[in-house]
Amino acid sequence: MRTLRRKSPTTVVVAALAALSLAACGEAGSGGDGGGGDTEVEVAENAAEDFDEGTRMRELAEAGNITIGVKYDQPGIGFKGATDDIPVGFDPEMGKILAGSLGIAVDDITWKETISDNREPFLQSGEVDLVIASYSINDERRAVVGQAGPYYVTGQQLLVPTDSDISTLEDIKGTEVCSVTGSTSLENIEAEGGKARGFDTYSECVDQVLGGTVDAMTTDGAILLGYAAEHPDELKVVVEPFSEERYGVGYSKDFPEMCEWISSTIEQSYEDGSWEEAFKATLGQSGVDTPEQPELDPCQ
Ligand code: GLU
């Protein structure tokens, strides 16, 4: 495979919608602005020539479209309000950067909502080409799908009502804690002794905390901060991170060549500033500090 050239002289800049415009105008589900918006992405010209014949990247570049699975209900990470045209958040931004390296403009990306439990099935069935959906890399998942990255590292915490007595991990023993089926969070909290209750989506779980039917919600701090920012008077994030969640880009094991492409495009986004710009426009808006750029795993 030829080396990927994203910053070539033929690269053109295509302006996406103005930063934050969608988020500012859109209605945002449970009340917030979705935690961040659109940035401009580079779209490579004649990108198909950058990839060898027979590779999935070449096929996608020639087809001129790609289907990407993202979350629709996680402010700052992946969010689509009722009147939004496209999802916004750090994960969709990474999707736009990857698509751009294939010469695919934002308008030619098909976004598909994924929930935690259908990420592997969607990749295995070809329903989506990529999953970029707060998708922690782990061995269990890597046994059935490819995961390149990490492009972001966070850790699991707790979201509780502002007047809650829960302030340490010990406090959750015997309490009802919700999370999402198919997530690492649900498995981890069971191991910590909470009475785990699994829902399909994090927005359902947040509603349980707001309604007082569970004592706490748990998942990655980055996700929880997005919800806390939407309900600052009602919710707060507590306890130090008690797991390490390394977000990767999921792809099908039928196309192992995608790993090098995804990894080199993420590397390039570190170098050209687009990763940082994407972060600041999205998760950064939820109050998350811009972290170190994680070192990428080698492709097998
Ligand atoms: N990052 C964790 C996971 O992949 C929790 C967040 C999620 O469910 O998307 O399971």
Automatic annotation (TrEMBL):
Looking up Pfam families in the UniProt record yields: SBP_bac_3 (PF00497)
Protein species of origin: uncultured Nocardioidaceae bacterium
Q: What's the name of the protein? A: Solute-binding protein family 3/N-terminal domain-containing protein
The entry's keywords: Signal, Transport
Q: Which residues form the signal peptide?
A: 1-23
| Biological processes per GO annotation | amino acid transport
- Solute-binding protein family 3/N-terminal domain spans which residues? 65-286
What is one cellular component GO term in this UniProt entry? extracellular region
Q: Which family does it belong to?
A: Belongs to the bacterial solute-binding protein 3 family.
